[in-house]
Amino acid sequence: MNELLILEIQKELEKFNHPTPLAISKEIVDFSKGNKGKIKEILKRLSNEEPWEYIRGYTYFKGNKIFVNEDVLIPRVETEEIVDIAKNYIKKGFQIFDVGTGSGCIAIALSKIFENDIFAIDINKKTLQVTKKNIRLNNSKNVQIINANLLNFDFNTNIPTVIIANLPYLPTKNIKKLQDSVKKYEPISALDGGEKGYEIYVNLLKQIKNQNINLKFCIFEIEPSTSKYFKENNFEIRKDNFNRERFAIIRPIHLK
Ligand SMILES: C[S@@+](CC[C@H](N)C(=O)[O-])C[C@H]1O[C@@H](n2cnc3c(N)ncnc32)[C@H](O)[C@@H]1O
Q: Rounded to whole angstroms, what are the CA distances from 31 to 26, 27, 34, 36?
């Protein structure tokens, strides 16, 4: 019975060229508990390009359930790789800053691996309401929320520090080229990185230098088309699983 319903939904999704009809038709049946009225409403919202994650209200990141709404960016699969890179370098006693935490996905994933103090920082108060829900949901007791513009808050600069950041990194001119599902529903304030795209990272690096932080390393998620700036500064560039230059690793020696 359900198989037929799944097939029916899949066909409806294909009619308006939904990008992942096969993957989500079963999830839609489970979520709506087979209620045809609800399925109809979901299909209507999907046909308007609303992301499935916002309709359902959650997604998964590194296996952790993460609530999402239009106040937070939907965590992307490539961002999971930041956690894999970071976990090779983090040591006991380091404090970890997740700058631009959004849903809190990175901080929460790291809290499942490390007992270190983790600070989930975001400039947007509404975003942090979702972060708070996710921290509770995942019982991430070592994650503390900070509402700040980058590192503009009081902390102990002597403690060895790791900075992970997936800040807005798209050049402003690229925003209009985004697909409707992103442009219409996801927070532009989580995407727009200024004229060149990497301005917020430049500000963060200035703060790190000026505050004389005991930095161990930084990992930034970047827009591949802006990698030239990071290479010119001799930062290490790593590719993501799609073979795009996606991460910059910065060590104290680079900031001398
Ligand atoms: C690309 S989203 C990333 C969210 C999450 N870390 C992830 O990987 O899915 C960027 C986040 O940075 C936040 N942000 C933008 N400018 C900021 C700033 N100056 N200081 C702190 N957070 C900022 C936005 O509110 C948004 O939540």
A: 9, 6, 8, 11
